[in-house]
Amino acid sequence: MFKNYLKIAWRNLTKNKGYSIINIGGLALGLTVTILIGLWIFDETTYNTNFKNHGHIAQILVNKTNNGETRTRFTLPYPLADELRNTYAGDFEHVVMGSFPGDNILSVEEKNLNEYGAFMEKDALRMFSLHMLKGNHDALNDPNSIVISESTAKAFFGNEDPMGKTMKINNDRNVTVKGVFEELPTNADIFDALRAFTESEKLQFIAPWDLYVASNDWVKTARDRKLWDNNSYQVYVQISDRSSMHAVNDKIKNILYDHVPEGSKQSDPKIFLHPMKDWHLKSSFKNGVSVGGAIQYVRMFGIIGIFVLLLACINFMNLSTARAQKRAKEVGIRKTVGSNKNQLVGQFMFESFVVTLSAFVLAIVLVALLLPLFNQLADKQIVLPFFNPIFWSIGLGLVLATSIMAGSYPALYLSSFRPMKVLKGSLLTGTSAMSFRKALVIIQFTVSIILVVGTVVVNRQIQHTKNQPIGYDKSELIMVEKNTEDFEGKYNSLREALKKTGVVAEMAESSSPLTEIWHSNGGYEWEGKDPSFMTNINSNYVSHDFGKTVGWEMAQGRDFSRDFASDSTAYILNEAAVEYMNLQDPIGKTIRWSDGEHKVIGVVKNLITESPFEPVKQCIYTIRYDETNLINLKLAPSKSPTESLAQIETVFQKFAPSVPFEYQFVDAAFGNKFKTEERMRKLSGIFSFLALFISCLGLFGLATFMAEQRTKEIGIRKVLGASISSLFKMLSKDFAVLILVSGVIAIPVAYYFMEQWLQNYTYRIAIPLWVFGAAILGVLLVAIFTISFQAIRAAKQNPVESLRTE
Amino acid sequence: MLLQLNNIFKWVNSGGQRVFLLKDINLEVEEGEFISIMGPSGSGKSTLLNVIGMLDAFDEGEYNFMDESVHTLKEKHRANLYKQYIGFVFQAYHLIDELTVYENLEMPLLYKNMKSSERKAVVADMLDRFNIVGKKDLFPTQLSGGQQQLVGVARALIGKPKLILADEPTGNLNSQQGEEIMEIFKQLNSEGVTVIQVTHSEKNAGYGSRIINLLDGRKIEG
């Protein structure tokens, strides 16, 4: 019996090749999308699950409320860790303080590399259960030690044993390699995504906390004087096995409030645990409450995946029921020779399974081929788990679910035919089956139109944001992180040397890169300020030449100038700051801060340094040569960048021989701000294309069938004098109506979803109405194009022939 | 007695009017009979045959088949009944185009859950009997009409039915092919199989032992 089913399934597939290609191809595309999205979702949701204790690890965050606005931060005061360790010992397995992770220079003899890592207390290795290839979890006990990743060990020592070798950190301290850990998997990070302004790199080293204290006086001061109001440290904890995040949260929430000096209590600091499982997917906070984060995309693409598969299943249903007449005779015969309905249902379900299985095999091939491209697009390193039985059993489950979803309706429909009717050939497609098929087509095109509208809206939102003025000229601008003390006091000579090469137009230093803000301060006072207003203003410490280098635009007043000695204490505000402080005539006003009085000499137009989707925050620019972290270079135009960079590197090597010359184009760094959105644009573009393509495949099949069915009608009409164009119109009209109906359904749904998405952005577009019209029209044209082959063929047929077949 | 129809009515409602397809049909068929149903187009011949074959329901009356009252049986039961005792032969042969001769013959046995080895023997026997061994791997479309009907008859016989129902079995065949088929029916009948055929041809009707004439759904005598 089974063999018989298999035979007939196979022969039906090979006999109707076009139909089979559409059916299997469509399903394979749908399955490919589903598998790719499934792999991606698996990767996203298993983030950090490689850490043995991931269920108990958390980073401590703090909510602070100023002027009614609550912001969530990860920087905490030094004494907090000790307080947790000592007073709440029972609740924590480990409490680990860490520095801000970032690039540090590691050197062995002449070799210097920028490596990403952090200084952490010694329990870190045990807490994160890093897999040590060499050494053990006690490796950080010695304050002059370091543990490095496998790849870093390889980069410095090749095949030699790195253990016991000496390295230098930031050209400052010598440390001994005491351990090598296995590279973290790509979907793991020991740092909370909350702090990642830019996407974080892979962890390459951990150095002992004590070394950090020893090499930074301000840390030592914070430790020795137990400063509760100096927030510069991160605290990671592993709660003990018997406590819960919830219970611990309740206990610790007020610790900070209880210890900070009176003046800081105003912001009502509340600390809480941010569990490791949420670091990646739920790291976005608004007004102190978690508002999701990457999880949104997981959900969205999950839905898209299911819908694309549904579209493919609908194709299958549509084509199978449309072809019912061809199979009807077989149903009749089988019934007369003794098959019962269940056996027929079984047979057709089995056929659907065969089709789905073939599609799945094809889909696996497609996934394997497309994965590199997909990885590039999604910024992932997913591999197809070929040898994982779980993957294959889920795959089989997917095949079963799909074949049931796609096959059950046709199976029930076909097997319910009454044998005598179909054998007499009196079966005409029932109107109910007809309207069911129409409903399916409407679903398909509704989804397609929604996706097309979504793609257009995402596109426009990105364009809109990119088109706003950013307040400076990011072209041919590069930034170099200083990282070491080697450049201290060499500003003028470096600038002169660089300018002398002719490839650098201007140079300036700043404390924050142009695409981020690293400092903000409170405690500003000015005339007319409401005493209860708690200030918080970004600061960027710059050199005299900053404005000229980045090409900012003065809105009022003047730029910093070496001609005025008093400029060393002067302030330049951005327009947002003027508004924030509510200054009527800002030039010449005095602003007081803890270090004295400052005169406002100029106002610049807002520079977009943080999220381009949010309003620019208030910022003060002031001259501080000793606080700068970056060197910004404006390249001379009309020089080849490669050549220019080579010359610049030579100059840098002269000034700081042991510092690797690493730079970043501001343009590229700015572009990174759109990474998530750009990815979304690409993916939604691809998915809408696929959805439309699959829908059109189905439409093509359906049109073929309809043209076939109406052969007689068309013949009669032609005999009676209908022209080809009028026939074409008649055949296309039905489909056009379906697509217009889809459009009407799609508009409110698409509008709702895109409004929801746009809510994520303060700077957002209003969805223009033409988008809907354009999407519907576009889809309509594609659809008509699809059916036109069949329609024209049918219309051109010789009526004598088509009538003879009756 | 093989089967008995008592006061069978069948109708359809068309535009508020009840149109009778079968009207008060009474019929008794003994085992071993060869009956021909005749009548003009639309007189209800095929409908009657389908009712006898349990492929079509009726609206009123009683139908007993081998001491089972068909009108009270559930569909599944009914299917088992005709699966076991009745074989069908159609004017348009109704072979499955995607299956070979061999597979077409094998299909009814599959639905009877016959074991593979037994199936092979039975099919081989039938191929031999109808002299179509050489055609067993061909598809229906590769055969002539007569050959296709031969396969159709063989398929009807393969389940060893007591009753063969044939709806104009020679209607699509030329006279020589038609004669061959009728000879086969005659042969079968002599072996004890009951045959009921619908036919337009007096000549074919002549093969039978009894003729039933229908007009407008009614049995007419003579």
List the helices and strands and how they pair.
The complex is a heterodimer of chains A (806) and B (222).
Chain A: H1 2-15, H2 17-45, E1 57-66, E2 69-73, E3 76-77, H3 79-87, E4 92-98, E5 102-108, E6 111-120, H4 124-127, E7 132-134, E8 145-149, H5 150-157, E9 166-169, E10 173-181, E11 205-208, H6 209-215, H7 217-224, E12 231-239, H8 245-252, H9 255-259, H10 262-265, E13 270-275, H11 276-279, E14 285-286, E15 289-290, H12 295-322, H13 324-336, H14 341-378, H15 389-415, H16 419-423, H17 431-467, E16 477-481, H18 491-500, E17 504-510, E18 519-521, E19 525-526, E20 537-542, H19 546-550, E21 554-557, E22 571-574, H20 575-581, E23 590-593, E24 596-604, E25 619-623, E26 630-635, H21 641-655, E27 663-665, H22 666-672, H23 675-709, H24 711-719, H25 724-758, H26 770-796, H27 799-804
Parallel strand pairs in A: 6-11, 8-10, 20-25, 22-24
Antiparallel strand pairs in A: 1-2, 1-12, 1-13, 3-12, 4-12, 5-6, 5-9, 7-10, 8-11, 9-10, 14-15, 16-26, 16-27, 17-26, 18-20, 19-23, 21-24, 22-25, 23-24
Helix pairs in contact in A: 1-14, 2-12, 2-14, 2-23, 6-7, 12-15, 12-17, 12-23, 13-15, 14-15, 17-23, 17-25, 17-26, 23-26, 25-26
Chain B: E1 3-14, E2 17-29, E3 34-38, H1 45-52, E4 60-65, E5 68-69, H2 75-85, E6 86-89, H3 101-111, H4 116-129, H5 145-158, E7 163-167, H6 175-190, E8 194-198, H7 202-205, E9 210-215, E10 218-220
Parallel strand pairs in B: 3-8, 3-9, 6-7, 7-8
Antiparallel strand pairs in B: 1-2, 1-4, 4-5, 9-10
Helix pairs in contact in B: 3-4, 3-5
